[in-house]
Design a protein that fits this description.
Keywords: Cell membrane, Membrane, Transmembrane, Transmembrane helix. The protein is mainly α. The protein contains 15 helices and no strands.
Length: 345
């Protein structure tokens, strides 16, 4: 019985780990925007950064059930680490990205033991407190961070020594999109593994997960550290692509905005953060032009409507429709390929 169960689990995880036509099409469309939307690279770069930030929050909220309103702490730390390194002459973007991810991961590991204790309300307050403390530290250490004036003189070297960061955002968007894709593939692989399956069981019922022998605290510490590294990477991308860092990267609204992104796109679904980032940024850009003073009101109204109309059901129907369309296209493509092969023979 045990071997059959293990085989079934292995079969399910293998099926989840396969790339479907819809996923491949999604990323091909994303790459196509580099060529067909050259005048929108600046906003697309922002979307890619927000999507990575949302992905980092989804790792702990959607898959581990850890609620956080202080996720901006890791985002801001990553931004300042990458910005300070570039200001001090270490302008290689990949080095800055790695250093930012490492610094955020260390902070995540150090604070995970505090955040994982107590009730959900305690976790919210501790995470928020960490972000507020970092914001005050950054404000006080003006000699290093620039304080309220912001960190200026952030000079980033050409990417791979070849591609300059231009004012049109082409290199910046290509860089951010590549980092987003690489980290997304890693997160997808993690969540399609037995470790990811154990995280879901912890999210659904931590007491039962502990009773069957899953090391709950160790699993949560690891995913919290990984999510912090992802958020730090997103902060580094922001600092390197706009070449400026301010106290705003540690502000509370950063954590609130990324939570809204997940509400729109859906938590517990890796593409939810990306889709939510696209929708949120487009709405923000359009509504701020339409009504600069009241755009937040309209976004709030849309969120209320999503709740009233049962967003989960809408998202489920949209996924089903997308998969059906992808399957139809795949089935249509197979006879064409067979016919061509027969003609060649």
């Amino acid at each position: 019985m045990k071997s059959h169960t293990e085989d079934d689990v292995r079969r399910v995880l293998t099926r989840r780990g396969r790339w479907g036509f819809s996923e491949i099409a999604f990323w091909l469309v994303a790459v196509a925007t580099l060529v067909f939307m050259p005048d929108r690279h600046l906003i697309l770069n922002e979307i890619a950064i927000i999507a990575l930030f949302a992905l980092s929050l989804d790792l702990i909220l959607g898959y581990a059930g850890i609620v956080s309103l202080g996720h901006a702490a890791f985002f801001g730390l990553g931004a300042y680490v990458a910005g300070i390194l570039a200001q001090q002459g270490i302008g290689n973007p990949l080095i800055g990205l790695a250093a930012a991810a490492l610094a955020a991961a260390i902070l995540g590991l150090a604070t995970s033991f505090l955040v994982l204790r107590g009730s959900d309300l305690t976790k919210l307050m501790v995470a928020l407190g960490v972000a507020l403390i970092l914001g005050e530290v950054a404000n006080r250490m003006a000699w290093l961070t620039g304080g309220a004036d912001g960190l200026q003189g952030v000079n980033v070297s050409p990417l791979l020594g070849l591609f300059e960061f231009d004012m049109f955002g082409t290199t910046a968007y290509a860089y951010s999109l590549t980092v987003l894709f690489v980290l997304f593939v890693l997160a997808r692989r993690v969540m399609a593994s037995p470790y990811g399956l154990s995280l879901r069981s912890i999210r659904d019922n931590p007491l039962r997960a502990r009773a069957i022998g899953i090391p709950v605290n160790r699993r949560l510490v690891v995913i919290y550290t990984l999510a912090a590294a992802y958020a730090g990477s997103a902060g580094a991308l922001l600092a390197q692509t706009i070449q400026f860092v301010s106290l705003d990267v540690l502000a509370f609204h950063r954590s609130a905005d990324v939570m809204l992104v997940l509400v729109i796109g859906g938590a517990g679904y890796l593409y939810g953060g990306i889709i939510g980032a696209v929708v949120f940024k487009i709405l923000q850009d359009y509504l701020s032009d339409l009504t600069p003073q009241y755009w937040l009101f309209w976004i709030g109204l849309i969120l209320v409507l999503l709740v009233l109309m049962d967003r989960e059901r809408m998202v489920s129907k949209a996924r089903t429709l997308w998969k059906r369309t992808a399957n139809r296209l795949t089935h249509r493509a197979e006879p064409l390929a067979t016919t061509r092969t027969a003609r060649e023979i």
